[in-house]
């Protein structure tokens, strides 16, 4: 497959940004964040904040005779200093994925590339037959993002999905909508006091 990607990668760019088969992707995040402190799943106070993110790739029904679903991955672009909580250190869950509808033999699941910390690669089977690989499915990744303490201002997150199945001649991509997703700073303003001096 690496050879195919190297050989046909340039031709695959034709499909980038212009879904040829009706595929779409969406992105949902917490509407706001705080960067003071929060309680993790063990009720332990942690510095910074936590933002919940969910992104879904909607694969349409296809009808290819010799369909092969080669790969699917999602690349997350985070604000500077923000990190994906893949281990579940803060939310007790870590990153996980779902496939709807489920089917016997469809076992693909997202794994975070720990080298990059922002690239989810789906590994496993996308279907043991052309019928299953052609079926319409929703591939969802749920994860939490740790916000560094003291961060300020509205931030943006975006997700780019990469997919490769026949008859594409290489990897194509599309952006999850909205692109980007905005997250407002909801950190409480510091309390101001009044000092009264008496005689």
Notes on the structure:
- The protein is mainly beta and 199 residues long.
- Helices cover 8% and strands 41% of the residues.
- The protein has helices spanning 2-12, 130-134; strands spanning 24-29, 32-33, 37-39, 45-47, 49-59, 69-77, 83-84, 96-100, 109-112, 119-123, 137-147, 155-165, 172-175, 181-185.
- Mean pLDDT is 84; it is low at 1-18.
Note the main attributes of this structure.
14 strands; 7-stranded mixed sheet; mainly beta; single chain; disordered N terminus; 5-stranded antiparallel sheet; 199 residues
As residue ranges, the low-confidence spans are: 1-18
Distance between the termini: 83 Å
Largest sheet, if any? 7 strands, mixed
Mean pLDDT: 84
Structural class: mainly beta
Q: How many helices in DSSP terms?
A: 2
- The Rg value, from CA coordinates, equals 21 Å
Count the strands?
A: 14
Strand content: 35-45%
Helical content band: under 10%
**Order of secondary-structure elements:** HEEEEEEEEEEHEEEE
Question: So what's the oligomer here?
Answer: single chain
């Amino acid at each position: 497959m690496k050879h195919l990607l190297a050989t046909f990668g340039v031709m695959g760019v034709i499909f980038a940004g212009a879904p040829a088969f009706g595929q779409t992707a969406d992105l949902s995040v917490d509407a706001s964040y705080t960067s003071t402190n929060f309680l993790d799943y063990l009720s332990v106070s942690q510095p910074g904040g936590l933002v919940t993110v969910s992104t879904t790739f909607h694969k349409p029904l296809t009808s290819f005779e010799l369909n092969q679903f080669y790969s699917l991955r999602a690349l997350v672009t985070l604000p500077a200093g923000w990190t994906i909580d893949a281990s579940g250190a803060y939310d007790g869950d870590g990153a996980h994925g779902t496939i709807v509808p489920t089917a016997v033999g469809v076992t693909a699941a997202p794994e975070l590339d720990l080298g990059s910390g922002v690239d989810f690669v789906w590994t496993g089977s996308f279907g043991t037959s052309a019928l299953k690989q052609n079926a319409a499915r929703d591939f969802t990744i749920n994860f939490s993002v740790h916000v560094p303490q003291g961060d300020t201002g509205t931030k943006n997150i975006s997700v780019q999905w990469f997919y490769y199945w026949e008859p594409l001649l290489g990897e194509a991509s599309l952006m999850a909508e909205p692109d980007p997703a905005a997250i407002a700073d909801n950190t409480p303003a510091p309390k101001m006091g009044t000092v009264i001096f008496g005689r």
